[in-house]
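step: validate -> pass
step: tokenize input -> pass
step: predict -> running
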Amino acid sequence: MNAFDEVINRTATDSSKWDKYAGQDVIPMWVADMDFAAPSPVLDAIRSRLEHPVLGYNSRPQSVICAIQSWLTRRYGWQVAEESILLSPGVVPALNQAVRAFVRPGRSVAVAIPTYPPFLQAPLNMDRAVTRLPMTPETGWSFPLDALRKALEGEHSIDMLMLSHPMNPVGRVIDRATLEAIAALCVAHDVVICSDEIHCDLLLDGRQHTPLASISAEAAARTVTFQAASKTFNLAGLGCAYVVAENESIRDQFEQAGAGIMSHVNTLGFVATEAALTHGSTWHAELIDYLRQNRDLVAQAVADLPWVHMRAPEATYLAWIDIRELELEDAHAFFTEHGVGIAAGEEYEGPGFVRLNYGCPQSVLVEGLSRMSKAIRSRMG
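step: predict -> pass
step: emit ->
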């Protein structure tokens, strides 16, 4: 049996994913949290650290920085100086910190929609506006370059582009030519790019991620990159992310914006990140193969239903499914009633769609898809 086939009981473990439907016969497939055990080298490293009985304040571990540098070089050929790497308890708090750092009062953040909800919430948290750049299924959810160009070439108020790369929830990988065009526009108009690349190690079908900051010195000078081991290795509960800012001035602004607000990364987050990036490559390769199989199961299930549609995800373990023909008033309630907990598209400013997490054992996925199919067929008669 494949290790990823193991069904692990997560009830009574304070799992936000599973607690949401506690006591109900509902399979939770909403939040981006996989139901797989963390890699053995990570668990072994945590156990080893806990053999030391003191868990006091930590300093910046040089070994973690080296592990990050090595991972970036091995995976993308991206060589990043030690001083360019900052550590954070999470990508979402770091995004909020970035808005505080780079977006002036009365100015806005450009965001391609549909998008990850914190992209829309972070500007509001700082009393900043959002400039929306709509994407459409008709264009295959391509990044809306024309909309960005028009927004920047008009009388715009944009100080920052917040980029999901690869794109959550639509699952698209942004190609190099588009990245170059995005960077050129932002450099020309003095816009800071905050590139959330937390899903960058979850590309499927042999695709290769290109960090936006790696394409040119000019791009690097205007970009703050956010990554973490948490999505790739299922470590979200340990709170450790890393931020790459190669421009010293931008890096200083970012750090100042977090002074007195951002907490330290916890000790076990450091331990887990180092172990994952150093010893997790085999597990990671096996995960990608399993997720590809799961993606294909979802694609086949959708293809078997004439009323729903999906562009197969190129990355992530998240499927973005078009259910507009079902004409549901409340998609979340409808699918919950039929035993599947999905994320409704309205959360992402994508009404008429749902996001489905297929990062789970195939037996669980097959059951979830079966429930969805029965629900849809009962709806459409």
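step: describe -> The CA atoms of residues 90 and 221 lie 23 Å apart.
step: cleanup -> pass
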